[in-house]
């Protein structure tokens, strides 16, 4: 193995979040309220399968064991099964996850599993079909629910569900969400709304602190679960009366960045050291031949030296990220 990816704060990077497209068919109020608009008209310029294979191999050779395939909506890629297969068959990668809006799950999740997908996160911001429609711009609640059922049917033992809590939309649904996971092996992850470059008033109006939810959970007998090395950023809670678990993703909490173990690659092949960082560092010129791997690794190692200790969200600075569909959340 080449030298493990590590930064000057001794954080090791086991986890790669790989975006494979910026395109999305939903219009979530907090992400792409007006839908996807190509930045430069070049839809075809997302990473190709050979480029994906090379970047994943380089990361695996430097200690990465988990890859999340994200977007935009990753399942919009026609070669999505091939991408999963390529990642899953990379030596050293033992967890292959995706984050999806779920609209293709009912039809395709069986193929994804066969291709090697080990973990699924699906975004469901409301358990009311009308509110779901209002938040996502799509009347696809039933379809997404059918997708979750199908995931269990084809053999997934747990499905993770992401919900972004927002004051004026779904905050009142917390009890309904808890009830929903009582008998289902779902890890329900409440994600704090994050401010991005294209959002201001919406954030002020809708941001809900995860700390309030945590207090509520602890009062109701939920207890924290111990973290593993390549876990994501959620604080996970379990309860003896619930089959499901709750995850809280609280990027505004002090210390959130101390356990950072992930790096990101955008759909156009840029390295992002932080979700809320910089413009990204071009890697694509080093993804054209297998023989370039050593140079690719060297470029990433050099960049890691400048990874900052923390994001600056608390100061209202969301960096250069216009919305999370641009680097996959
Ligand atoms: N389209 C897929 C989906 O929605 O699951 C994958 C990409 S999406 C950018 C990944 C995750 O980021 C989703 O769970 C979404 O809810 C979350 N997300 C997007 N914008 C966000 C924001 N401003 N604050 C918090 N979470 C956000
Ligand atoms: Fe699309 Fe996901 Fe963004 Fe919603 S959160 S608009 S589904 S990329």
From TrEMBL:
Residues given in the record as [4Fe-4S] cluster 2 binding sites: 257, 260, 274
Source organism superkingdom: Bacteria
Pathway listed: Cofactor biosynthesis; molybdopterin biosynthesis
Record note on cofactor: Binds 2 [4Fe-4S] clusters. Binds 1 [4Fe-4S] cluster coordinated with 3 cysteines and an exchangeable S-adenosyl-L-methionine and 1 [4Fe-4S] cluster coordinated with 3 cysteines and the GTP-derived substrate.
Annotated transmembrane regions: none
Alphabetized Gene3D superfamilies for the sequence: Aldolase class I
Positions bound to GTP: 17, 68, 99, 160, 262-264
SMART domains: Elp3
Obligatory cofactor(s): [4Fe-4S] cluster
E.C. code: 4.1.99.22
Catalysed reactions, semicolon-separated: GTP + AH2 + S-adenosyl-L-methionine = (8S)-3',8-cyclo-7,8-dihydroguanosine 5'-triphosphate + 5'-deoxyadenosine + L-methionine + A + H(+)
Presence of the UniProt keyword Magnesium in the record: no
Region (Disordered), start-end ranges: 308-329
Gene Ontology molecular function terms on file: GTP 3',8'-cyclase activity
Assembly: Monomer and homodimer.
Alphabetized NCBIfam families for the sequence: moaA
The name this protein goes by in its record: GTP 3',8-cyclase
Source organism (scientific name): Vibrio marisflavi CECT 7928
Source taxonomy: Bacteria, Pseudomonadati, Pseudomonadota, Gammaproteobacteria, Vibrionales
Name of the coding gene: moaA
């Amino acid at each position: 193995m080449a030298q493990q990816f590590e930064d000057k704060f001794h954080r090791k990077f086991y986890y790669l979040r790989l975006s494979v497209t910026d395109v999305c068919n939903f219009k979530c109020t907090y992400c792409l309220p007006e839908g996807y608009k190509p930045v430069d008209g070049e839809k075809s310029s997302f990473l190709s399968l050979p480029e994906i294979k090379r970047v994943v191999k380089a990361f695996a050779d430097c200690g990465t064991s988990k890859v999340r395939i994200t977007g935009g909506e990753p399942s919009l890629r026609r070669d999505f099964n091939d991408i999963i297969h390529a990642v899953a068959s990379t030596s050293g990668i033992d967890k292959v996850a995706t984050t999806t809006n779920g609209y293709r799950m009912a039809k395709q999740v069986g193929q994804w599993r066969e291709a090697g997908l080990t973990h699924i996160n699906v975004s469901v911001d409301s358990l009311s079909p009308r509110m779901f429609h209002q938040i996502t711009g799509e009347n696809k609640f039933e379809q997404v629910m059918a997708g979750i059922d199908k995931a269990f049917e084809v053999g997934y033992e747990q499905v993770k569900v992401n919900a972004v809590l927002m004051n004026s939309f779904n905050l009142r649904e917390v009890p309904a969400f808890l009830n929903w996971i009582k008998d289902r092996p779902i890890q329900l992850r409440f994600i704090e709304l994050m401010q991005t470059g294209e959002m201001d008033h919406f954030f002020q109006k809708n941001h809900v602190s995860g700390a309030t939810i945590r207090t509520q959970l602890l009062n109701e007998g939920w207890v924290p679960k111990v973290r593993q090395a390549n876990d994501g950023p959620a604080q996970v809670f379990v309860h003896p009366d619930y089959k499901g678990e709750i995850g809280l993703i609280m990027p505004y909490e002090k210390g959130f960045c101390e356990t950072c173990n992930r790096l990101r690659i955008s759909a156009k092949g840029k390295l992002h050291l932080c979700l809320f960082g910089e413009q990204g560092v071009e890697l694509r010129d080093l993804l054209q031949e297998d023989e370039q791997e050593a140079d690719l690794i060297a470029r990433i190692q050099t960049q890691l030296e400048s990874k900052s200790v923390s994001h600056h969200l608390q100061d209202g600075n969301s960096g250069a990220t216009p919305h999370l569909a641009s680097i996959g959340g």
